[in-house]
Amino acid sequence: MNTQPALANRRTFLCGTGVTLGLPWLESLGGIAHAAEAGKEPRRLLLICLPLGIFRDSFIPKLSGSDYELTEYLSPLADLRDRFTIISGLEHPGVSGGHAAQARIFTGIPSAERNRRSLDQYVAASLGQHTRFDSLALSAGANDFGWTDGGSMVPAEKSIGDAFARLYAEEGAANKAKVLGEIGRGKSILDHVLDEAHDLESRLSKRDREKLGEYFETVRATEKRLAKSEEWIHQPKPQVNSKPPAPFAPDEIITNLRGVCDLTHLAFKTDSTRVITFGYFRQDTVTVPGVNVGYHNLSHHGQDEGNIAQLKRVERAFFDELKTLLTNLKSTREGDSTLLDRTTILVTSNLGSGNSHSNKDLPVLLAGGRFQHGEHLNFAPGTVPLSNLYVSVLNQLGFEDQSFGTSTGTLQGLTVA
User: Fold this and answer.
1) How far is Cα 245 from Cα 266, in angstroms, rounded to an integer?
2) Which residue has the higher pLDDT, 234 or 296?
3) Are 219 and 192 a contacting pair, CB within 8 Å?
4) What is the pTM of this model?
5) Among the listed residues 360, 387, 380, the one whose alpha carbon sits nearest the alpha carbon of residue 98
Protein backbone atom coordinates (compact mmCIF):
# COMPACT_ATOMS: atom_id res chain seq x y z
CA MET A 1 0.00 0.00 0.00
CA ASN A 2 1.35 3.41 -0.94
CA THR A 3 0.86 5.61 2.10
CA GLN A 4 2.85 8.61 0.92
CA PRO A 5 0.04 10.35 -1.02
CA ALA A 6 -2.27 10.04 1.98
CA LEU A 7 0.28 11.63 4.27
CA ALA A 8 0.95 14.35 1.72
CA ASN A 9 -2.78 15.07 1.50
CA ARG A 10 -3.02 15.46 5.26
CA ARG A 11 -0.11 17.88 5.18
CA THR A 12 -1.87 19.85 2.49
CA PHE A 13 -5.06 19.76 4.54
CA LEU A 14 -3.25 21.15 7.54
CA CYS A 15 -1.72 24.00 5.56
CA GLY A 16 -5.10 24.72 4.01
CA THR A 17 -6.65 25.38 7.41
CA GLY A 18 -4.31 28.27 8.04
CA VAL A 19 -2.17 26.33 10.52
CA THR A 20 1.52 26.29 9.71
CA LEU A 21 3.60 23.33 10.84
CA GLY A 22 7.10 24.39 11.74
CA LEU A 23 8.59 27.07 13.91
CA PRO A 24 6.27 28.11 16.76
CA TRP A 25 4.35 31.28 16.09
CA LEU A 26 6.67 34.07 17.22
CA GLU A 27 5.56 37.28 18.84
CA SER A 28 6.76 39.37 21.79
CA LEU A 29 5.08 40.17 25.09
CA GLY A 30 5.93 43.26 26.93
CA GLY A 31 9.40 44.24 27.97
CA ILE A 32 11.61 44.12 30.98
CA ALA A 33 8.76 44.18 33.49
CA HIS A 34 7.84 40.69 32.35
CA ALA A 35 11.42 39.56 32.90
CA ALA A 36 11.25 40.72 36.49
CA GLU A 37 7.97 38.91 36.97
CA ALA A 38 9.60 35.61 36.02
CA GLY A 39 10.84 35.39 39.61
CA LYS A 40 14.54 35.01 38.83
CA GLU A 41 17.27 36.81 36.96
CA PRO A 42 16.64 36.45 33.22
CA ARG A 43 19.57 34.94 31.36
CA ARG A 44 20.04 35.10 27.62
CA LEU A 45 22.08 33.46 24.88
CA LEU A 46 23.34 34.91 21.60
CA LEU A 47 25.09 32.60 19.13
CA ILE A 48 26.91 34.06 16.13
CA CYS A 49 28.69 32.13 13.39
CA LEU A 50 30.95 33.46 10.66
CA PRO A 51 30.70 30.50 8.25
CA LEU A 52 33.65 31.61 6.08
CA GLY A 53 36.09 31.63 8.97
CA ILE A 54 37.99 34.40 10.76
CA PHE A 55 41.46 35.36 9.55
CA ARG A 56 43.54 33.93 12.36
CA ASP A 57 46.48 36.35 12.42
CA SER A 58 44.11 39.28 12.93
CA PHE A 59 42.02 37.57 15.60
CA ILE A 60 43.91 35.08 17.80
CA PRO A 61 46.50 36.66 20.16
CA LYS A 62 50.03 35.27 20.06
CA LEU A 63 50.22 34.99 23.87
CA SER A 64 47.83 33.15 26.16
CA GLY A 65 46.70 34.27 29.59
CA SER A 66 45.64 37.78 30.57
CA ASP A 67 48.67 39.71 29.28
CA TYR A 68 48.07 39.14 25.60
CA GLU A 69 48.25 42.01 23.11
CA LEU A 70 44.99 42.93 21.41
CA THR A 71 44.97 41.88 17.77
CA GLU A 72 43.64 43.95 14.88
CA TYR A 73 40.11 42.55 15.17
CA LEU A 74 40.05 42.78 18.96
CA SER A 75 41.33 46.36 19.13
CA PRO A 76 37.83 47.85 18.65
CA LEU A 77 36.81 45.91 21.77
CA ALA A 78 39.58 47.36 23.95
CA ASP A 79 37.13 49.07 26.33
CA LEU A 80 35.39 45.72 26.82
CA ARG A 81 38.52 43.64 27.37
CA ASP A 82 37.38 42.50 30.82
CA ARG A 83 34.06 41.34 29.36
CA PHE A 84 35.28 38.78 26.83
CA THR A 85 37.52 35.72 26.54
CA ILE A 86 39.36 34.46 23.45
CA ILE A 87 39.60 30.68 23.10
CA SER A 88 41.70 28.78 20.56
CA GLY A 89 42.45 25.14 19.81
CA LEU A 90 38.90 23.78 20.17
CA GLU A 91 37.10 21.64 17.59
CA HIS A 92 34.17 19.28 17.14
CA PRO A 93 35.56 15.70 17.00
CA GLY A 94 34.25 13.84 13.98
CA VAL A 95 32.91 16.95 12.27
CA SER A 96 34.39 17.54 8.82
CA GLY A 97 33.40 18.60 5.32
CA GLY A 98 34.56 22.21 5.20
CA HIS A 99 31.56 24.46 4.56
CA ALA A 100 29.14 21.59 5.18
CA ALA A 101 30.17 21.62 8.84
CA GLN A 102 28.42 24.94 9.47
CA ALA A 103 25.12 23.13 10.14
CA ARG A 104 26.84 21.33 13.05
CA ILE A 105 28.67 24.24 14.63
CA PHE A 106 26.15 24.55 17.48
CA THR A 107 25.25 20.86 17.68
CA GLY A 108 28.66 19.19 17.81
CA ILE A 109 27.19 16.06 16.25
CA PRO A 110 29.78 14.12 14.16
CA SER A 111 29.30 14.29 10.40
CA ALA A 112 28.61 10.55 10.16
CA GLU A 113 25.54 10.89 12.39
CA ARG A 114 22.17 12.50 11.92
CA ASN A 115 22.27 16.11 13.03
CA ARG A 116 20.14 17.05 16.02
CA ARG A 117 19.66 19.36 19.01
CA SER A 118 21.56 22.60 18.68
CA LEU A 119 22.59 24.57 21.74
CA ASP A 120 20.20 27.45 21.03
CA GLN A 121 17.13 25.25 20.65
CA TYR A 122 17.99 23.22 23.73
CA VAL A 123 18.29 26.39 25.79
CA ALA A 124 15.18 27.92 24.21
CA ALA A 125 13.04 25.01 25.36
CA SER A 126 13.58 26.25 28.91
CA LEU A 127 14.27 29.99 28.67
CA GLY A 128 11.56 30.42 26.05
CA GLN A 129 8.87 29.65 28.62
CA HIS A 130 9.09 33.26 29.81
CA THR A 131 8.79 34.97 26.42
CA ARG A 132 6.55 34.73 23.39
CA PHE A 133 9.50 34.22 21.08
CA ASP A 134 11.07 30.94 22.19
CA SER A 135 14.03 31.92 20.04
CA LEU A 136 14.90 34.11 17.09
CA ALA A 137 16.87 32.78 14.14
CA LEU A 138 17.94 35.86 12.19
CA SER A 139 20.01 36.07 9.03
CA ALA A 140 22.84 38.46 8.29
CA GLY A 141 23.44 36.42 5.16
CA ALA A 142 23.19 32.85 6.48
CA ASN A 143 21.66 30.80 9.25
CA ASP A 144 21.20 27.03 9.27
CA PHE A 145 22.46 26.68 12.82
CA GLY A 146 19.31 25.77 14.75
CA TRP A 147 18.26 22.09 14.89
CA THR A 148 15.54 20.28 16.80
CA ASP A 149 15.97 17.05 18.75
CA GLY A 150 14.59 15.13 15.80
CA GLY A 151 16.99 16.65 13.29
CA SER A 152 14.79 19.29 11.67
CA MET A 153 16.42 22.62 10.81
CA VAL A 154 14.86 25.73 12.33
CA PRO A 155 14.29 28.19 9.48
CA ALA A 156 15.68 31.69 9.88
CA GLU A 157 13.93 35.00 9.31
CA LYS A 158 15.74 36.47 6.30
CA SER A 159 13.98 39.83 6.35
CA ILE A 160 14.89 42.01 9.32
CA GLY A 161 11.92 44.23 8.49
CA ASP A 162 9.56 41.27 8.72
CA ALA A 163 11.13 40.17 11.99
CA PHE A 164 10.71 43.69 13.39
CA ALA A 165 7.06 43.72 12.34
CA ARG A 166 6.35 40.36 13.98
CA LEU A 167 7.93 41.61 17.18
CA TYR A 168 6.42 45.07 17.45
CA ALA A 169 3.72 45.81 14.86
CA GLU A 170 0.30 45.72 16.50
CA GLU A 171 -2.44 43.77 14.75
CA GLY A 172 -6.04 44.91 14.51
CA ALA A 173 -8.96 43.28 16.30
CA ALA A 174 -10.12 41.56 13.11
CA ASN A 175 -6.75 39.89 12.62
CA LYS A 176 -6.66 38.78 16.25
CA ALA A 177 -10.08 37.17 15.86
CA LYS A 178 -8.85 35.36 12.74
CA VAL A 179 -5.79 34.08 14.55
CA LEU A 180 -7.84 32.87 17.51
CA GLY A 181 -10.16 31.08 15.09
CA GLU A 182 -7.21 29.34 13.46
CA ILE A 183 -5.96 28.29 16.87
CA GLY A 184 -9.30 26.73 17.76
CA ARG A 185 -9.48 24.85 14.46
CA GLY A 186 -5.84 23.85 14.66
CA LYS A 187 -6.21 22.06 17.97
CA SER A 188 -8.84 19.64 16.68
CA ILE A 189 -6.98 19.20 13.40
CA LEU A 190 -3.78 18.23 15.18
CA ASP A 191 -5.59 15.62 17.25
CA HIS A 192 -7.00 14.11 14.08
CA VAL A 193 -3.70 14.16 12.19
CA LEU A 194 -1.74 12.55 15.01
CA ASP A 195 -4.25 9.73 15.34
CA GLU A 196 -4.11 8.97 11.64
CA ALA A 197 -0.34 9.30 11.43
CA HIS A 198 0.18 6.86 14.31
CA ASP A 199 -2.04 4.35 12.49
CA LEU A 200 0.36 4.54 9.55
CA GLU A 201 3.53 4.04 11.55
CA SER A 202 3.46 0.22 11.75
CA ARG A 203 3.21 -0.06 7.96
CA LEU A 204 6.18 2.15 7.09
CA SER A 205 9.81 1.36 6.39
CA LYS A 206 12.48 2.34 8.89
CA ARG A 207 13.42 5.39 6.83
CA ASP A 208 9.80 6.47 6.52
CA ARG A 209 9.27 5.97 10.26
CA GLU A 210 12.18 8.34 10.82
CA LYS A 211 10.52 10.85 8.53
CA LEU A 212 7.25 10.36 10.38
CA GLY A 213 9.09 10.94 13.64
CA GLU A 214 10.17 14.31 12.32
CA TYR A 215 6.57 14.98 11.41
CA PHE A 216 5.37 14.10 14.92
CA GLU A 217 7.97 16.44 16.35
CA THR A 218 6.78 19.24 14.10
CA VAL A 219 3.19 18.63 15.15
CA ARG A 220 4.14 18.68 18.81
CA ALA A 221 5.94 21.97 18.25
CA THR A 222 2.82 23.32 16.58
CA GLU A 223 0.68 22.24 19.51
CA LYS A 224 2.93 24.23 21.81
CA ARG A 225 2.74 27.17 19.43
CA LEU A 226 -1.05 27.10 19.38
CA ALA A 227 -1.31 26.95 23.16
CA LYS A 228 1.18 29.78 23.49
CA SER A 229 -0.56 31.89 20.85
CA GLU A 230 -3.90 31.53 22.60
CA GLU A 231 -2.36 32.63 25.89
CA TRP A 232 -0.56 35.65 24.49
CA ILE A 233 -2.70 36.89 21.60
CA HIS A 234 -4.57 39.37 23.83
CA GLN A 235 -1.41 40.88 25.28
CA PRO A 236 -0.18 44.15 23.72
CA LYS A 237 3.19 44.20 22.04
CA PRO A 238 6.00 46.35 23.45
CA GLN A 239 5.92 50.02 22.54
CA VAL A 240 9.28 50.98 21.07
CA ASN A 241 10.61 54.23 19.66
CA SER A 242 12.78 52.51 17.07
CA LYS A 243 11.77 52.81 13.44
CA PRO A 244 11.40 49.70 11.28
CA PRO A 245 14.58 48.88 9.33
CA ALA A 246 14.74 50.44 5.88
CA PRO A 247 15.08 48.10 2.87
CA PHE A 248 18.60 47.44 1.62
CA ALA A 249 20.26 45.70 -1.32
CA PRO A 250 21.48 42.10 -0.83
CA ASP A 251 25.15 43.13 -1.15
CA GLU A 252 24.85 45.70 1.66
CA ILE A 253 26.18 43.22 4.18
CA ILE A 254 27.12 45.82 6.80
CA THR A 255 23.64 47.35 6.69
CA ASN A 256 22.19 43.87 7.09
CA LEU A 257 24.50 43.10 10.00
CA ARG A 258 23.73 46.43 11.65
CA GLY A 259 20.01 45.73 11.39
CA VAL A 260 20.43 42.29 12.92
CA CYS A 261 22.52 43.67 15.79
CA ASP A 262 20.05 46.49 16.45
CA LEU A 263 17.12 44.08 16.44
CA THR A 264 19.04 41.72 18.75
CA HIS A 265 19.57 44.51 21.26
CA LEU A 266 15.95 45.60 21.02
CA ALA A 267 14.60 42.06 21.36
CA PHE A 268 16.67 41.47 24.50
CA LYS A 269 15.85 44.90 25.88
CA THR A 270 12.11 44.29 25.58
CA ASP A 271 12.49 40.66 26.73
CA SER A 272 10.83 39.54 23.52
CA THR A 273 13.12 36.51 23.44
CA ARG A 274 16.13 35.24 25.35
CA VAL A 275 17.77 33.17 22.63
CA ILE A 276 19.01 34.49 19.26
CA THR A 277 21.26 33.07 16.55
CA PHE A 278 22.59 34.62 13.37
CA GLY A 279 25.40 34.30 10.83
CA TYR A 280 27.49 36.86 8.93
CA PHE A 281 27.90 35.72 5.36
CA ARG A 282 27.49 36.46 1.68
CA GLN A 283 28.87 34.38 -1.17
CA ASP A 284 29.74 37.08 -3.67
CA THR A 285 29.83 40.87 -3.89
CA VAL A 286 29.66 42.89 -0.67
CA THR A 287 29.34 46.64 -0.31
CA VAL A 288 32.35 47.31 1.89
CA PRO A 289 34.69 50.23 1.15
CA GLY A 290 37.85 49.04 -0.59
CA VAL A 291 36.45 45.59 -1.45
CA ASN A 292 35.85 44.52 -5.06
CA VAL A 293 36.17 40.70 -4.74
CA GLY A 294 33.45 38.37 -3.51
CA TYR A 295 33.55 37.54 0.20
CA HIS A 296 33.70 33.77 -0.42
CA ASN A 297 36.59 34.12 -2.86
CA LEU A 298 38.42 36.34 -0.39
CA SER A 299 38.14 33.66 2.30
CA HIS A 300 40.17 31.46 -0.07
CA HIS A 301 42.86 34.10 -0.20
CA GLY A 302 45.74 31.79 -1.14
CA GLN A 303 48.03 33.93 1.05
CA ASP A 304 47.72 36.72 -1.52
CA GLU A 305 48.33 40.00 0.31
CA GLY A 306 45.76 41.89 -1.72
CA ASN A 307 43.04 39.33 -1.02
CA ILE A 308 43.93 39.23 2.66
CA ALA A 309 43.73 43.02 2.88
CA GLN A 310 40.23 43.00 1.39
CA LEU A 311 39.15 40.04 3.53
CA LYS A 312 40.21 41.92 6.65
CA ARG A 313 38.07 44.88 5.62
CA VAL A 314 35.02 42.62 5.47
CA GLU A 315 35.75 40.85 8.75
CA ARG A 316 36.79 44.02 10.55
CA ALA A 317 33.36 45.43 9.73
CA PHE A 318 31.84 42.60 11.75
CA PHE A 319 33.95 43.37 14.81
CA ASP A 320 33.10 47.07 14.56
CA GLU A 321 29.40 46.19 14.69
CA LEU A 322 30.02 43.66 17.44
CA LYS A 323 31.56 46.42 19.53
CA THR A 324 28.42 48.52 19.09
CA LEU A 325 26.19 45.61 20.08
CA LEU A 326 28.23 44.74 23.18
CA THR A 327 28.38 48.41 24.16
CA ASN A 328 24.62 48.76 23.80
CA LEU A 329 24.06 45.66 25.92
CA LYS A 330 26.47 46.97 28.57
CA SER A 331 24.76 50.37 28.59
CA THR A 332 21.27 48.94 29.06
CA ARG A 333 20.32 48.51 32.70
CA GLU A 334 17.98 45.72 33.75
CA GLY A 335 17.23 45.64 37.44
CA ASP A 336 20.50 45.75 39.36
CA SER A 337 22.53 44.56 36.37
CA THR A 338 23.02 45.11 32.63
CA LEU A 339 21.94 43.18 29.58
CA LEU A 340 25.57 42.27 28.94
CA ASP A 341 25.83 40.73 32.42
CA ARG A 342 22.73 38.68 31.66
CA THR A 343 23.58 37.72 28.08
CA THR A 344 26.15 35.11 27.08
CA ILE A 345 27.50 35.84 23.59
CA LEU A 346 29.38 33.19 21.65
CA VAL A 347 31.08 34.08 18.36
CA THR A 348 32.75 31.31 16.38
CA SER A 349 33.12 29.68 12.97
CA ASN A 350 32.86 26.18 11.56
CA LEU A 351 36.16 26.87 9.76
CA GLY A 352 39.46 27.19 11.56
CA SER A 353 40.85 28.28 8.19
CA GLY A 354 38.63 29.46 5.36
CA ASN A 355 41.59 29.24 3.02
CA SER A 356 42.06 25.48 3.53
CA HIS A 357 38.51 24.50 4.55
CA SER A 358 39.88 23.16 7.84
CA ASN A 359 37.34 22.38 10.56
CA LYS A 360 40.07 22.22 13.21
CA ASP A 361 41.33 24.80 15.73
CA LEU A 362 38.16 26.89 15.60
CA PRO A 363 38.20 30.57 16.61
CA VAL A 364 36.04 31.51 19.60
CA LEU A 365 35.11 34.76 21.33
CA LEU A 366 33.00 34.40 24.46
CA ALA A 367 31.54 37.58 25.94
CA GLY A 368 29.14 38.68 28.65
CA GLY A 369 27.31 36.58 31.17
CA ARG A 370 28.74 35.82 34.58
CA PHE A 371 32.04 34.38 33.39
CA GLN A 372 35.39 35.68 34.59
CA HIS A 373 36.80 37.19 31.41
CA GLY A 374 39.94 38.93 30.20
CA GLU A 375 42.08 35.98 29.07
CA HIS A 376 43.14 34.05 26.01
CA LEU A 377 42.62 30.34 26.72
CA ASN A 378 44.86 28.42 24.33
CA PHE A 379 44.40 24.66 24.08
CA ALA A 380 46.51 22.22 22.10
CA PRO A 381 44.58 21.61 18.85
CA GLY A 382 42.68 18.34 18.78
CA THR A 383 42.66 17.82 22.55
CA VAL A 384 39.49 19.57 23.73
CA PRO A 385 35.99 19.46 22.17
CA LEU A 386 34.22 22.74 21.50
CA SER A 387 31.20 21.15 23.16
CA ASN A 388 33.04 21.40 26.50
CA LEU A 389 32.51 25.13 26.19
CA TYR A 390 28.83 24.48 25.50
CA VAL A 391 28.53 22.56 28.77
CA SER A 392 30.11 25.49 30.63
CA VAL A 393 27.69 27.87 28.93
CA LEU A 394 24.75 25.69 29.92
CA ASN A 395 25.91 25.56 33.54
CA GLN A 396 26.37 29.33 33.64
CA LEU A 397 22.83 29.74 32.31
CA GLY A 398 21.52 27.63 35.18
CA PHE A 399 21.34 24.21 33.53
CA GLU A 400 22.75 21.22 35.39
CA ASP A 401 23.75 19.26 32.27
CA GLN A 402 27.15 17.58 32.40
CA SER A 403 27.32 16.75 28.69
CA PHE A 404 26.42 18.11 25.28
CA GLY A 405 27.39 16.85 21.84
CA THR A 406 30.84 15.23 22.06
CA SER A 407 31.83 16.94 25.30
CA THR A 408 34.13 15.34 27.85
CA GLY A 409 33.28 17.78 30.65
CA THR A 410 33.31 21.53 31.21
CA LEU A 411 35.95 23.82 29.71
CA GLN A 412 38.94 24.01 32.01
CA GLY A 413 40.15 27.51 32.85
CA LEU A 414 36.74 29.10 32.34
CA THR A 415 35.11 30.07 35.62
CA VAL A 416 32.01 31.94 36.74
CA ALA A 417 32.45 35.16 38.69
Assistant:
1) 12
2) 296
3) no
4) 0.81
5) 360
